[in-house]
Write a structure and sequence with these properties.
By secondary structure, the protein is an alpha/beta fold. It folds into 2 domains: 2-297, 4-Layer Sandwich (Purple Acid Phosphatase, chain A, domain 2); 312-368, no CATH class. 36% of the residues lie in helices and 23% in strands. It has helices at residues 14-20, 24-28, 32-36, 69-77, 93-106, 118-121, 159-172, 192-204, 282-295, 298-311, 326-333, 343-354, 356-368; strands at residues 2-10, 40-45, 81-83, 110-112, 114-115, 125-129, 132-140, 153-154, 175-181, 208-212, 220-223, 226-229, 234-237, 248-256, 260-269, 276-278. Strands 1, 2, 3, 4, 13, 14, 15 and 16 form an 8-stranded mixed sheet that branches. A 6-stranded mixed sheet has the order 6-7-9-10-12-11. Helix 8 (192-204) links the parallel strand 9 (175-181) and strand 10. Helix 12 crosses helix 13. The radius of gyration is 21 Å and the shape is globular.
């Protein structure tokens, strides 16, 4: 069976304007033939469906959304499934989650990694494709989107839970695909934690692991004859930026048989125009090979991570209470004086502590102060 996996999809700005006019060919025309030649295709749906009257949740970072046309466009292009375990699925609360699930159902697009409760979000998706069954497990790092036993959202990254999900999948399917949403934004390498964990998923029985979230493509490795892709980049995410990496992405085509074979399809998205331009495989080969060498060299990977963490220190050094005077702190604690921590800073601190990748950067910063 041939499977295609794409990265972050958020049809906003110029893309949104085209989609509202149903000009899907303009944006997705070059991708459609690639999607149609595989048996099953998956894309990360990075925003909830909203109609304009939903209330955004309190969080740090943007609250993303799109109209139902965003789902219809994926159906037009031939996509079979959307992964919903990401840090924006709950941006407009339970209403956004509910409307997204209903829109996908209406357009006959499968969903995985998101639901009205944690139990729904954590369900393994099983797809019978030809004579084989594929199991898809989708989870994300902890930010503001996580589902609970009683509330809607995304399936959280939880190695214990994923252990049981993989064991279940191995019993009920011929092949197991893990899709994770996490990592350091705009950094083209995985953390050591990510590498160890994704290798562990292969040890448990996964046949392939694919990661996205960083808004830039990364490298990959073949571990025990099974591929691990550490970043796909944006699939369709229009944003005004000077960061060239934002517009560069890759599609991953995986063929599950006795062996697991794969190929990479590079593209440029929403750069000079609101289109996805499919490129020759040679375009990113040199860069990906360089990333692969770093990923396979523990000393070199640690060195690059150290430099990146150093560069992140400033943004992580000012999120806590600035007041250190004992008397003033006592008055704040008693409610006599207001706290100097704004709701915006509190949300930022919560995210830095709760999210695995943010927490790693915060701990580094605190160690180096």
């Amino acid at each position: 069976m041939k499977i295609l996996v794409a990265g972050d999809y958020c049809p906003q700005n110029r893309v949104s304007q085209l989609f509202e006019n149903r000009d899907y060919e303009v944006v997705l025309g070059e991708v459609k033939p690639i999607v149609e030649e595989v048996d099953y295709s998956i894309v990360n749906f990075e925003c909830p469906v909203c109609e304009g009257d939903e209330t955004p949740i309190a969080k740090c970072g943007p609250n993303l959304h799109c109209s139902e046309r965003g789902v219809e466009a994926l159906r037009w292009a031939g996509f079979s499934c959307v992964s919903l375990a990401n840090n924006h699925f709950l941006d407009f609360g339970v209403e956004g989650v509910d409307k997204t699930l209903k829109a996908c159902h209406e357009y006959d697009i499968d969903t995985v990694g998101g639901g009205m409760t944690l139990n729904e979000a954590a369900k393994v998706l099983y797809k019978k494709i030809g004579e084989n069954c594929l199991a898809i497990i989708n989870c994300c790092e902890h930010e503001f989107s996580i589902a609970t036993n009683k509330t809607a959202g995304s399936n959280p990254l939880n190695p214990v839970q994923q252990y049981y999900e993989i064991q279940e999948a191995r019993k009920n399917a011929d092949h197991v695909l893990i899709i994770v949403h996490g990592g350091y934004e705009e950094f083209q390498l995985p953390s050591v934690r990510m590498q160890k964990l994704y290798r562990f998923f292969i040890d448990l029985g996964a046949d392939a692991v694919i990661n996205h979230h960083q808004h830039c493509f990364s490298g990959y490795e073949v571990y025990k004859n099974k591929p691990i892709f550490y970043g796909l980049g944006n699939f369709c995410f229009d944003k005004e930026t000077k960061n060239k990496q934002w517009n560069e992405g890759i599609l991953v085509k995986i063929e599950f048989d006795k062996d697991v074979n794969f190929s990479i399809i590079p593209f440029n998205q929403c750069s000079k125009d609101a289109k996805i331009h499919v490129l020759s495989p040679d375009n990113y080969n040199v860069k990906i090979e360089e990333l692969n060498k770093i990923i396979l060299n523990p000393k070199e990977l640690s060195s690059y991570l150290e430099e990146y963490l150093k560069s992140s220190r400033k943004s992580y050094s000012n999120i806590f209470e600035k007041c250190s005077n004992r008397i003033l702190l006592s008055m704040i604690n008693r409610g006599i004086l207001p706290s100097t921590i704004s709701s915006k800073r509190r949300n930022k601190a919560y995210n830095f502590i709760n999210c695995e990748s943010h927490r790693e950067k915060l701990l580094y910063c605190l160690r180096e102060l």
